[in-house]
């Protein structure tokens, strides 16, 4: 099926798919297991994002991408920490390979028009809000691609010598710190990832691949400071504080 036909079909009768990536490790957190399965307020870090994406109106399919070694943890999560149908697959050696495998897993349903949009989210960002995920999905359906971002402030330009430029620290209003979930037209992003695989292109995130291989405008919506990525042990402690401060429901 051609991309044009796929686009027409998906816009007529599609649903969105939420993809949650959990390919990291616990090394920098100081844990012996994948950080996505560390506990946060009574349930695993990954379950927070999965449950949030799964309750966004329009999201009808959830895919959880994990390392082969983490399949047992993923199945425990599916059985104990969510009531939502969860399709568990194994990913690749890199983030991009894992995204490609997730898109290929969905390809038949994308071609059939069952899925019109894909939201790709990092499991290590557990505190994404329902409102932000819904806003990204809405923007992606309007323009073809959308990412959440926080305006980057207090950025200092650096000269080639390695010293700060004469103007000193300043705010660059045109820069944002990109977050997830990132949403894209499903047919378009599938084609982009297949093209990237043929070329051996590796991007930093979903948006970078879209920018390289598509002509769709990637818009941004205002992200949230609480939608931070858990990388170090102090991030996990901060996430616990946010859960307590906001009175979020725990497991």
UniProtKB/TrEMBL annotation:
Organism encoding this protein: Brachybacterium tyrofermentans
Descriptive protein name: 2-C-methyl-D-erythritol 4-phosphate cytidylyltransferase
GO molecular function, one term: nucleotidyltransferase activity
Keyword Nucleotidyltransferase attached: yes
Protein's UniProt keywords contain Transferase: yes
SUPFAM superfamilies per record: Nucleotide-diphospho-sugar transferases (SSF53448)
InterPro entries listed in its UniProt record: IspD/TarI, IspD/TarI_cytidylyltransf_bact, ISPD_synthase_CS, Nucleotide-diphossugar_trans
A family per Pfam: IspD
């Amino acid at each position: 099926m051609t991309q044009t036909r796929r686009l027409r079909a998906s816009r007529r009768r599609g649903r969105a798919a939420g993809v949650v990536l959990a390919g990291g490790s616990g090394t920098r957190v100081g844990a012996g297991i994948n950080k996505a399965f560390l506990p946060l307020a009574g349930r695993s870090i990954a379950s927070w994002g999965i449950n949030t994406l799964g309750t966004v109106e329009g999201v009808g399919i959830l895919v959880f991408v994990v390392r082969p070694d983490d399949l047992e943890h993923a199945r425990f999560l599916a059985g104990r920490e969510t009531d939502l149908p969860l399709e568990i697959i194994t990913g690749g050696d890199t983030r991009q390979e894992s995204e490609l495998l997730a898109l290929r897993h969905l390809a038949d349903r994308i071609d059939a028009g069952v899925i019109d949009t894909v939201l790709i989210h990092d499991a290590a960002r557990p505190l994404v809000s329902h409102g932000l995920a819904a806003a990204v999905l809405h923007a992606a359906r309007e323009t073809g691609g959308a990412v959440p971002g926080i305006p980057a402030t207090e950025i200092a330009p650096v000269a080639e010598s390695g010293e700060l430029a004469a103007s000193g620290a300043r705010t660059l209003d045109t820069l944002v710190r990109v977050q997830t979930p990132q949403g894209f037209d499903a047919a378009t992003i599938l084609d982009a990832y297949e093209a990237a695989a043929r070329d051996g292109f590796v991007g930093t995130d979903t948006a970078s691949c879209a920018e390289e291989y598509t002509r769709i405008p990637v818009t941004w919506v205002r992200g949230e400071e609480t939608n931070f990525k858990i990388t170090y042990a102090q991030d996990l402690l901060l996430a616990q504080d946010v859960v307590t401060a906001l009175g979020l429901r725990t497991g």
